[in-house]
Amino acid sequence: EYSCEYGSLKFYALCGVGGVLSCGLTHTAVVPLDLVKCRMQVDPQKYKSIFNGFSVTVKEDGVRGLAKGWAPTFIGYSMQGLCKFGFYEVFKILYGNMLGEENAYLWRTSLYLAASASAEFFADIALAPMEAAKVRIQTQPGYANTLRQAVPKMFGEEGIWA
Questions:
Q1: Residue 68 burial (10 A CB sphere; 0-12, 13-18, 19+)
Q2: Which of 28, 112, 105 is nearest to 70 (CA)?
Q3: What is the pLDDT of residue 161?
Q4: Please, which residues have CB within 8 angstroms of residue 111's CB and are 6 or more apart in sequence?
Q5: In this structure, is the dihedral angle defined by the CA atoms of residues 96, 97, 101 and 106, taken in order, positive or negative?
Q6: Which of 11, 98, 128, 130 is the most buried (most CB within 10 A)?
Q7: DSSP result, 16-45
């Protein structure tokens, strides 16, 4: 009667896939807006407003320039969503089992907050490398145009902690 058993590996995998789809796809869809926002933060004299930022970007890089950073955005936010949605369920069950059924019910709001915070900790770690590459691609002219160019350059300049 259910698609999978609650707490099974299939359950966690489906939660993770839901996170990949909801975070990876949605963040990738708004890459042009994010690109202009990041450029406005880095160079407010050049990118004076959202509309001006779009105009300047299209003039300098063409319409394709609005997609700069799409690959690290998709990969990074997919990994973040996978961890956020998947680990939330893992931690919710883990902490609930530690508290016992009655206490888990009585303290459910705190349990959900603790599970969410724990999942977000790992989700942000999964996102960070791709976010670092994305920001360099989008805001440092001439640094790199693609993820394939950015990663080796970052590694060569700063090592594994880049």
A1: buried
A2: 28
A3: 87
A4: 92, 95, 96, 99, 104
A5: negative
A6: 130
A7: HHHHIIIIIIHHHHTHHHHHHHHHHHH-TT
Contact 14, 21 (CB under 8 A): no
Question: In this structure, what DSSP letter does residue 47 have?
Answer: -
User: How many residues make up the chain in this entry?
Assistant: 162
In this structure, are residues 134 and 162 in contact, taking their beta carbons and an 8 Å threshold? no
CB 34 within 8 A of CB 69: yes
pLDDT on residue 18: 96
Q: Which of 145, 157, 138, 153 minimizes the C-alpha distance to 57?
A: 138
The pLDDT tens digits of the residues spanning 89-130 come to 999 999 999 999 999 999 999 999 999 999 999 999 999 999
Half-sphere exposure of residue 60, counting CA atoms within 13 Å on the CB side? 14
- Cβ distance 73 to 20 under 8 Å? no
